[in-house]
Specification:
The chain has 83 residues and is mostly helical. The protein is 53% helix and 0% strand. α1 packs across α2.
Amino acid sequence: SRDDVAPEHAEVAGAVRAVADDLGATPLQVVLAWLLRLPQGVQPVFGSTNAGRIAEACGAAGVALPREAWYRLYEAARGRRVS
């Protein structure tokens, strides 16, 4: 929920929620889609005993994350614009 985000992560959480709303995806799917598009070839490991949460995570593979959205999240995480 929005209430359980630490203040120092509020900007990133807000950016994730905004991108998720724009794309019709969940925040979890957006975060995983962002990780899958890192140039380093990151392979996120996701675990849960909740079948619904696993199905939600699998939906990240179908999220078409535009370049602008990827950079929006990257800049939010860095705390400054990319030049």
